[in-house]
Structure formats: structure tokens, C-alpha cells
Amino acid sequence: MSETSRCREILTKFCVGYGVDVGYGGDPIVPSAITIDLPHPYAKVGGTPLNLGGDARNLCWFADNSLNYIYSSHLLEDFEPHKTKNMILEWLRVLAIGGNLILYLPDEQKYKKHCRKTGQDYNHSHKIENFNLGYIRGVLREISNIEIIYKKAACEDYSFEIVLRKTGPTERMNLSRERKEDEIDWLKKSLVDKDNRTRDLEQIIPHMRNTKGWRTLDKLRKARNKFGAFRR
Fold first, then answer.
1. How confident is the model at residue 1 (pLDDT cuts 50, 70, 90)?
2. In this predicted structure, which of 33-37, 119-123, 152-156, 197-201 has the lowest mean pLDDT?
3. Going by DSSP bridges, is the β-strand pair 146-155/159-166 parallel, antiparallel, or unpaired?
4. Residue 181 is part of which domain span?
5. Does some domain include residue 47?
6. Is 171 inside a domain boundary?
7. Among 135, 158, 206, 211, which is 20 to 30 Å from 146 by CA?
8. What is the pLDDT of residue 199?
């Protein structure tokens, strides 16, 4: 049984329109969701095919303000604490104003207790000892132009739910030099890979030539926003 199957009845109503399931693990929240995961996911509990293999920290396939919802289950806790805010900011970047960010996540201490009690295998990918609804709300207090429209601190055995609505423009994530180089690589790949359904390839290529330094990143972003894959 997938984690998503536990919350589907409650959270499906927030997943309306054009959206994605980040870290879907084989079982998307709704059948129409674009599925995103690692190219070779470490966990798969369903048979729905993977649409986009890549990095959850960088939704480079999508233009700014292009999605109606983003759903993610049991993923944010697999990244170090200093990455939580930047990941949320990146997801908010591609979310349209009025769109929903739907999160279904584990309370780490409840999860550990549940594993000890039931013998369920513990997921050692978890990186945040104090991960819970309070931790996420603390991160969200640092982000403007969002509102919490639904939350539930305890559901099922060890998880919690929270749904945010984007009410206005949000800040860009703070990119380190290494992170910028990673994004350049991902943007180049997404813009030239025919498997990502890029349109007007001949028009995109000029945006990628004759650029130096960080101008490369800006031009690639503009190319992505103008011609990028999956832009409505």
C-alpha cells in the first residue's frame, strides 16, 4: 500500500486542473497528474508509468506560474534541513497564483515509534529528526504570499497533511554556485531532449549559444519560459 492511498480520499479535492505528483512512487494522487520521480525510483508501490525522471529540487520542465497544483507525499523529509525552504520555493515558482501545494508527510518521531511497535522497516533516507507539522509551519513563516487552507496534525498512524495556496508572487530560491551549475545542466537537458516533448527546437538553440557566466542561466530560464516543455 502506498502512502498516498492513505490520504487520497481527503486530498484529491485539492488536485484540480493541470498538476504534478512529485516523488509519486508508482501511485499518483490522481490519474491525470504528471508523474515525477528519480529516473530509477528507490521505491515503487504502483504500476503507473514515470513521466519525468529528474530532481525534485528543480522542476526545470515547467515555466513559472504554469501549474494548478503540486502534490508530494513523504519526500521533503529525505532532504537535509537547509534544503527544505528552497524546495518549497521551487515548487511555488511553477505554481500559478491561486494554485495549491498539497503535502502529505511523516511526523518523524511518530514514524519511528510506529516502526518499533510494528516491526515495519525504517526508511533511513529520512534526514530531519524533528520533522513534523510544526517544523513545516516554521519554514512556511519565512515565505510570503502563501496561506494555509487546510491542515491536519495527525492522520493515519504517523503522517500529517497541509495544503497551501499561493496568493501572490513568491521569492526565488537562493542558488549556490554549485546549484546554479546543476540547474544549467538540467535546463539544457530539458530543452534539447525530444523525450521531454520540447517544441520549436530550432528556435530554442540560439538561446543556448554565445553565453558566458551566469547569463547562461538567465537565458536558459527565458528559453524555458518561452518554449519550455509542458507550458500551457
1. confident
2. 197-201
3. antiparallel
4. 177-227
5. yes
6. no
7. 158
8. 39
pTM for this model (two decimals):
0.78
| Spatial contact of 156 and 105, defined as CB atoms under 8 Å apart | no
Residue with cell 518561452: 226
Q: Do the Cβ atoms of 154 and 107 come closer than 8 Å?
A: yes
CATH number, domain of 89, equals 3.40.50.150
Burial of 177 (0-12, 13-18, 19+ CB in 10 A): exposed
Quick one: 131 and 189 in the same domain? no
111 and 194 inside one domain? no
Q: Among the residues of 61-124, which ranges form H helices?
A: 81-94, 108-118
The enclosing H or E element of 146 equals strand 146-155
Angle, helix 81-94 to helix 133-140, in steps of 10 degrees = 60
- 74 close to 42: Cβ distance less than 8 angstroms: no
Mean pLDDT of 43-61: 87
Q: How far apart are the C-alpha atoms of 215 and 30, rounded to whole Å?
A: 38
Return the half-sphere exposure (C-beta side, CA atoms, 13 A cut-off) of residue 14. Answer: 28
In a domain, 57, yes or no: yes
Cα distance between residue 187 and residue 144, in whole Å: 26
Look-up of cell digits 507539522: 133
Count H helices, E strands: the chain? 7, 7
- What does the pLDDT look like over 193-202, one tens digit per residue? 444 444 333 3
For 17-26, 97-106, 122-131, 178-187, which range has the lowest pLDDT when averaged over its residues? 178-187
Whether 71 and 52 have beta carbons less than 8 Å apart is answered as no
**Which residue(s) pair with 52 in the sheet?**
36
